[in-house]
Amino acid sequence: MLSLMRQATQALRRPLLARANSSYAVDFTGKTAVVTGGTKGIGRATVLKLAQLGANVKALGRSGLEQFADVPNVEGVYCDLGNTSEATEILNGLGDIDLLVNNAGITYLAPLETHDIAEFEKVMTVNVTGSLVAGQAAARSMLARQAKGAIVNVSSQASTVGLPDHTAYCVSKGAMDQLTRMMAVELGPRGIRVNSVNPTVVLTDMGKAAWSDEAKAAPMLARIPLRRFAEEEDVVDAIVYLLSERAGMVHGAILPVDGGFWAA
Ligand SMILES: NC(=O)c1ccc[n+]([C@@H]2O[C@H](COP(=O)([O-])OP(=O)(O)OC[C@H]3O[C@@H](n4cnc5c(N)ncnc54)[C@H](OP(=O)(O)O)[C@@H]3O)[C@@H](O)[C@H]2O)c1
C-alpha cells in the first residue's frame, strides 16, 4: 500500500521535472571556433575541449602548430599578434567564425622605474591590440552572416589590482576588461555575446615564470580564500559556459575564476 502511494506521488511529480531542461549538455557541432594562443597552456586546453564538444577549431599561435596535425577538428594556424598588420590579414582570412576566444597573452616583469617601454608596448600590442583585431575579424564574420556568435576574452585577476613588477600586464588586462565592455555594448544589440574570464594564477609556462618562486607564491596563495591556484580546466570550464547557450543572458560579464581573490 505504502509503495503504491509512493509511486502515485512520483507520477505526479514527473511533469514538473519535465519542465526543466532535459539536458545540460553543451554541443558546439557545426560551429567554427578560433582560439588565439591556442598552442600552449589555457589556450591549448580550450582548443581540445571545444573540439571534443564538436566545434571545428582554429588554434592560432606561432609555434608548435604541428601538434594538431592528427587531432580531429583542429587546425593549427600561424598568427603572430605582435605584428598587427600581418595578424589582421590572417584573421580576416580565416572565414566563418562563430566563437572566438581571445586568449593569447604575454607578460613582462620589471619594477616600474625600469620598465622597458618597448617591452611595455609589446605586451599592449599582443594582449590588447591583438584582442581588438581578432574581435573585429570575428564580429565582421558574425555580422555578415547574422550569426549569433559569442566571444570570450581571457583577462586576469590582475585587471583590477596592482601587482608589483606587473605594470605592463596589469595595464593591459585593465584595458582588456574595458574592451570586453565596449564589445558587449556595441555587438550585443546585433546578437553577439561578449564576456571575460579573469583567472588567478595558473601554473602554465606564463604562470610558472611569474609565480614558481615559493616566497612570491605564498603571499598570493594567502590572499586566495580557496587557498589554491587555478587549474587550466577551471578556466576552460568557465570559457565553455560563457560560449554556450547556457549563458544566453550573460553578457558584458567580467567573471573571476580566482578562488575568491577579488572578494577578499
Ligand atoms: N597563467 C596564469 O597565471 C594566468 C592568469 C590569468 C590570466 N592568464 C591569461 O591567460 C592567457 C593564456 O595564458 P597561459 O598562462 O596559458 O600562457 P602560456 O602558456 O604562456 O601561453 C600563451 C599563449 O599565447 C601565445 N602567444 C604568445 N605571444 C604571442 C604572439 N605574439 N602572437 C600570437 N600568440 C602568442 C602562445 O603561443 P606561441 O608561443 O605559439 O605564439 C601561447 O599559445 C593569457 O592571456 C594570460 O594573460 C594567465
UniProtKB/TrEMBL annotation:
UniProt keyword list: NADP, Oxidoreductase
GO annotation, biological process: glucose metabolic process; xylulose metabolic process
SMART domains documented for this protein: PKS_KR
SUPFAM superfamilies: NAD(P)-binding Rossmann-fold domains (SSF51735)
InterPro entries: KR_dom (IPR057326), L-xylulose/Carbonyl_redctase (IPR051737), NAD(P)-bd_dom_sf (IPR036291), Sc_DH/Rdtase_CS (IPR020904), SDR_fam (IPR002347)
Recorded superkingdom: Eukaryota
PROSITE patterns in the record: ADH_SHORT
GO molecular function: carbonyl reductase (NADPH) activity; L-xylulose reductase (NADPH) activity
Domain Ketoreductase: 31-214
Keyword Mitochondrion among UniProt keywords: no
Keyword set includes NADP: yes
Subunit structure, interactors included: Homotetramer.
Family: Belongs to the short-chain dehydrogenases/reductases (SDR) family.
UniProt protein name: Ketoreductase domain-containing protein
Native species: Monosiga brevicollis
Lineage: Eukaryota, Choanoflagellata, Craspedida, Salpingoecidae, Monosiga
